[in-house]
Amino acid sequence: MSTRRVVEFFYGSSSPWDYLAFVRLVEAAMRTQSTIVHRPVLARSLPVPGDEGSAARSAAAAAYAAKDLQDWARFCGVRVSASVPVGADVDWAQRGAVAVAMVAQPGTRQGRDYVEGIFRARFTDGRDVADRAVVVDVARRCGIAGPEFEAILDSGATLDALLDAVEIALIAVVLAELFLDRLELLAEHVLALVFAHLLLDLGVDA
């Protein structure tokens, strides 16, 4: 008897790219019969690769990035508003994800529905998910409501859980960067081997 694969999805609610990653991951999980475990983090605590020169980014580069986002949104079948600011404070949305995970009924899609609902509320409907009332409303639409949910939402322990998840996510970021560095070196090595074989085939002494 085979066991279902488990995929941990570390995400913030402040980036539209996280929304698109969520959509694609859901599709992949359905295709591979995998289970997604949602790991909300406070994305403002994570380093953003290549962000050092963002203030000096040219208007052309910004315009291309905006077009690229809309192209991918269409590909994923979702609508992402171009006017939603990226990187806003979404702590309440992330707190809500922790609370939903703790009170959701086993065997339901309430957790996934909440994550999708928060993304849609922010990037499609333009709602302010930094507003606690909006977060409570999104959870209610997923069948999550009541004093237990709101107590967890407001608890300091919930914030601690998000900060703990940040530490794990930082490790994942470092490992990903190490992998990408090694992948680049591997690609260079493969290209060198291909070139060497080409020279041999041509009878050139390298």
Poorly predicted ranges? 170-183
Taking all residues together, what is the mean pLDDT? 77
Which structural class best describes the helix and strand composition?
mainly alpha
Oligomer: single chain
Q: What level of helicity do the residues show?
A: 55-70%
Main sheet overview: 2 strands, parallel
Task: Please report the distance between the alpha carbons of the first and last residues.
Answer: 54 Å
Number of strands: 2
Specify the number of helices: 7
What is the radius of gyration?
Answer: 21 Å
Summarize the SSE layout with pairings.
Blueprint: E1 6-11, H1 16-32, E2 35-40, H2 59-76, H3 91-103, H4 110-123, H5 132-141, H6 147-154, H7 156-202
Parallel strand pairs: 1-2
Summarize the structure.
With 206 residues, the chain is mostly helical. It is 62% helix and 6% strand.
Your description of this structure?
The chain has 206 residues and is mostly helical. It has helices at residues 16-32, 59-76, 91-103, 110-123, 132-141, 147-154, 156-202, and strands at residues 6-11, 35-40. Strands 1-2 form a two-stranded parallel ribbon. Strand 1 (6-11), helix 1 and strand 2 form a beta-alpha-beta unit. The longest helix is centred in the C-terminal third of the chain and has 47 residues, at 156-202. The protein is globular. The termini are far apart.
Key structural traits:
6% strand, mainly alpha, 7 helices
